[in-house]
Amino acid sequence: MKYKLLPFLFFLAVFTAQAQTRLATDPAQYITDAKAMLVTGKAKNAEALGAALESVWGNQRLSDKQKQQVIDISQQMYRKKLRVNPHYENFYQMLVGAVNHHNMRGSQIDGMLEVVVKAVQQDEGIALDRFFQTSSSYLTTGILYQNKQYTLRTSGGSVSFAYEGKAAPKEKEKSAEVSDWDSFSWDDEVAGESTEATADDWGDAWDTPKPAAPKKVDPKVAEKKRRDDFKKMFIPAQPKVSGPVMKLENVNLSFATIHDSTAITKTSGHLMLANNLFVGEGGSFAWQVEGKPVSAAFKAFNFDITAAAFKVPESTITYDAVLDAPIEGVFEFRSTKAGTNGEKTYPRFASYTNDAKVKSLGKDIVYSGGFTLAGNLIGSKPLDGSASALAVLEDGKKKFRSMAHNYNLNDSIISANRAYVAIYQNQRRDSLTHPAMQLRYSKPTRELVLTRDKGVYSKTPFYDSYHKFEITAERLAWNLGTPHVNFSILNTKTLIPVQLESAQYFSNMRFQQLVGVASFHPLQVFVSYAAKAKTNDFYAFDVAKASKLNEKAVREAAIGLAREGFLTYDGQSHFISLKPKAWHYVGSAQNLSDYDHLVIKSVVPSGRNATLNLSSNRLTVRGVEKMAFNNDSAAVYAVPDSNIVHLLDNRNMEFGGRLYAGRLNFRGSQFKFDYNEFMIDMQKLDTVAFVTKKRHAVGKKKELEQVMTSRSGKMSGKLYINKPNNKSGRKHFPEYPKFDSPMGGQVAFARPDVLAGAYDSTVYFDIPSYKLDSLSKGKSMLGFSGTFHSGNIFPPIKTKLTMMPDETLGFYYQPGPKGLPAFGGKGIAYDTIMMTSAGIQSRGTLKYLTSTLQAPEYTYYLDKVVTQKGTSAKVEAGGGEANFPMASLGHYEMVWTPKQDTMYLMVDAKDPMKIYKEEFKFTGTAMLSPGGLYGDGELDNADANIVSQKLSFKGRNLSGNHAQMIVKSDVEGKPAMKATDMAISYDLDKRFVEFGSEQKGIASIEFPKAQYKTSMSRATWDMKQQKVSLAADGAGGKNYFYSQHPEQEGLYFSAATGEYDLKSNSILAGGVPYIPVGDAHIIPDSGKVAVAAGATITTLRNARVLADSLQQFHKLYAGNINVLSRNAFSGTAVHDYQNAASNSFKLQFADFLYKEHQLKKKSNIHTTYAQAAVRETDNFYIFPRIRYRGNVTMYSYRPHMDFDGDLKLNFTGNEADSDWFPFKRDSLNPDNVRIPIMKQKAPDGNQLYTGLHLSRGTFKPYNTFVSKKQYEDDLDIFTVTGDLSYDKAKSEFKITDAARSAAGSYEGNELRYNEGSKTVSFEGKLNLVNSLKDFGIESAGTGIAKTDSGYYAIDALMAFDMNMHSSVIAALGKKLNETAIRGGGDQGGDETMPYKLANIIGNRDAQRYQGGAIAFPKLSNKLVRSMVFDNVDLRWSNKTNAWYSVGKLGLSNVMKEEINANMDGFMEIKQDLNGEPVVNLYLQADPYTWVFLSYLENGLVVVASDADLNKAIRSKASGGRSRKYGMYMGESIDKNRFVDQFKHDYLNGKDAFKMATQPPVAEQGGFNVAEDEVEDTKKKKKKKKGNEEEEEGWQ
């Protein structure tokens, strides 16, 4: 329960702290209580406020009455339970601010306190809070309102307080009366977006609703009344002032936001403190637009001070830079963020109506209308929606004028979304107008662009009063500096036409569509009313009343008709004015007046459809494909040249091109259309074409015309379309259209409809002059006598030109019994001659040379005669030198070319030509000429078939060139031989054919049964012996045999001779150098190749194989080869392989295969490959001393072969010393073998090694060469993996690991084996002992091993790691440094030193070595070790199974103590039975100083000749021996025992150097060693209490 009360107690404590206490009524005590209350109530700046209040209270600034009134107010606030913060705090701030900041005195303070009293009594809640907050803020800081982004303050004038009427209205009563201004939109002013309308050009649906105009009043009076009423709509009543207010007189209201800083100056009003609403009167606002001053004078207005925004419904703006005079309107300000380019959208102003005159647009632009300002954007949309007028002048004369509800009047561009436009022409007597277009006028370029309206006026046309045309276009562009006005469409891809309609055009369908959804025909109603009222001007109300129609429906109808151009309509006054178009349509619909059908459509992909030249008033229309002048059965239409028509005044026009009238087609230029006369004057007429009825019907594709041309070169005429008062064709006059031509003409037959245009101008018919009418009826109008000229085919023929059955102009003519000579007498025609669309023709018999032909018709061209219907023909034998054979024909086709004097006779296989007495059958084209009979086709008999384009037939022989000859066999469809492109000589009596290839080197002779062809150039066919002898080209050309068997993939080979037996179908080729198979060459043993039927090549014995054929890397011999295809052969062949030592081994390859081979990072390659198998018993040495077993693969494109098998090294001569290991190498070069010796494994899975090891069984070193170790845990003294290579000159093998192989690298291992000396040399990382936790040796160096003698030697760099106390090792190093005898050694001269170092400290640090310039401890931390020897020469003793030193020991450093001395001493390294190291080291620094260290059985014994050093050793030495590691104090006898033993085992008992002696006592530091030792012994015997930790660690 107590936990549940905690929140309540906390709230109570906070409330108590915030609540006031009851204040004393005594003025002296009151101020004390007030100050205390501010502190306990946690008022902001309580102490400062209390002090200020006390100052005001005590400096006589307040009268006693005012003090008492303050006390009374405080009591009222107490009773009303108001809080210290904010109420008392704000109240006291008001007092302090009124006195100290505003210097209020006497009555001013009385008035303020009186207002406070009423506010406390009458106002509640947030209203009271606002009163205190706003009042205190103002009186304290001069700020009326402030938040993070906005501050409103006052300056100047006077301020007083008052309480008006009742309490302040509640929040929902705060806002004043709403006016139409609040719904006014600036969007189109700022963004320029179009607002789609449904009214006429100035209709009421465009913007704000307007009050209805009174009936039947003067439009000007109605307009003034409307404007006055409209203005009142935007001036609402001011809110009623009530509650506590602050009266501001003649003050400046300053607005400061993060976006703006501005002010209303010299204004007065009341600030209702309870709801923060300012109700003001007067004042002004000044700002700049693009650097030009603008000001607005205000009348009544109000606004909420909590927002940085206000509206003034009644203001007057002065803008001298733009406006001719100040104008009235509505002003609005709102602090907003500027746009991305710094543009502002406020302040804003809109005039009430269109009474502004803008003078800033330029001297040639006159504007009168509405005025709006939105930031820097100037517009023209007034609040009453009235239109504005704008005119552009030049030299004081108007170029165009426009009217719009809303212009955007920016500096360089004037634009309007919907504007009436009039462009003046013909000295302002005519104009080009449109009721509603999007307008854009550029003042700098003086370019006017009009774009179609996107709403209801999108299809409304321009009206051109000069040309009397309505022009429907989407875009008009005019640069006022030029006279050219261009019409176009917006999107040229859609190919929408620009359309021009005559002002007198009428469409009954369009007239009926005007009804729409109305119940009456609106146009008829309006015209009917105008006729009755005898006026074109009236109100919609009058029409509705007279016609008893709904006035709204009448208005809507007027709007629609206005868009169609029938009338003008004022959407505000509903005043209607009929246009002539309205009377025209109604009159035409009732058949009371004439009309026309003139419509011109322009389709231009480039977009420039029409251009109006204002200088000449000439309107040029482009893209006019067709232009009709009427629409009845006698249609008259034009197809203008270049699709261009020029319009003149009143629909007159000029054009050139083609003009169609009924069955006539006129072509020419300078055609002039006279609208009033309804006539076309063709002043320059080129041709008149006659179109027949039948051809006209088919003429949808293209009319085939019969043309009349001028005889003198000049021709003209006039075409009368119809009567001038019958343009519509509503009445029928059968004589129209009619054409008058005073000149004669010529009918030419050089036309495409006459024999497909085969004739030229020499074929024609003369006719006289003529007159034609009733062109639409198609009466026969031909039948002219004259002379026909045939272009010298026949002599001139006098006859009559008539209409032939095929409806072309022609004639019939019958020659006499002797016929009519043709082509100068080379032939004779004996029957009817005629002229039709099929050309000049004759029938019956035609004779030429010794031939006589019969056919139903022959067609004559200027250079030939043809027939496709020949029935029979004969050629008589003889003919002198021509030596014609006898021949006969049945059905045939013929072409006779008189100029070449040759007749071509075409026959087919159904009815072949028969030649010779044997009746050889010929099909194709036979050529008859004075030189003889020739043929182009196929000749067939029982033995052969010959096809040639150049056959020549003589008495008993024939010949041919480029011929194909097929020798027939007993199998149908499979000839014995086929020869193509041959020169043939065929002797019919001897039965002997000689033939040879026309093109040397081409395989033109085929043997289908053998499935081969050959390029042998000469052959002889003996029909009796049935053999074909083949001979090569004597000029040395290439002669080949080619297999045509599909499975042999284009197999071929060259040869010198050949013979084909037609009985056995076999080929015997001689002189064959090789057969290419894949990329290899198969060389026959004798140069002979036999091919049996079916393309089978017999087995080639003792053949050779060269692979590949180009580079011949591989030469195989003793082969038995079967050639299977161009890419395949089988069999076996032998290849000799030589290794690096030039030892030769035979490899027998088989499984030859030619296939695609994958290349790395390259495109694939096709190659021949084969495999050979090498058995273990073959003793195949891939490398000296390296045996190989496995597969060998040969690739023809590579000089070296691939090996995939196993290797075995035999360096020792004993094969048991090595094991087989896997080996795979592509393209192995025997002279440069690199065998990877990595972590190889034997076939049984055991790891194979290469290196030097110490056997745990025999304790002796042994070598491995990719073989198993004796025991897996044998010590690896040295191992290497890497590439095995062989140096033939040195007879030396080498294995180098990857690290050592890198360029410039010292790091890594390398092993060499020399065959001659049987010596193994190794260099790199060494492992002389099994390093343990407390003792180890890291070493690197070089060594040699002689496998046959057991000799091992090592030159080592050795780093000892021994667990010794730091004081001991420091003392040891210091002593050795002090006593070492230096000189004689040259560490920097050791060339192997960088290699040694790199394997311990890494390659990078080793490269810094620089020949000893840097000491080891400074070279790398890895060399800061217990003891580092830079030069130790070790030998192996088979007797002691140990490594022992030879010569001096090069000591580099002890930890960081640099020694760098070659010392006398002994070192012995071996391992015990457990494989752990046993190391003895004796160092003699000088004749008196020595150190002995011995590691054995996990213990390190140390003793020295120096007493101080021994003392240090003894102090840190361990006690008795234990299994745990320890450092022990040694004795001199230990040293002596080792030295004696070393000399006995390795030096034959001799001294290697002078042993050190005991130094004098003085040199030992002046103390008794024995005493020290006794003392130390006593200390050791004392038992120590507690636990002590022995300092251990690697040093």
From TrEMBL:
Residues 1-19 form the signal peptide. The keyword Signal applies. Residues 195-222, 1557-1595 are annotated as: Disordered. Keywords: Signal. It comes from the Bacteria. This is Uncharacterized protein.
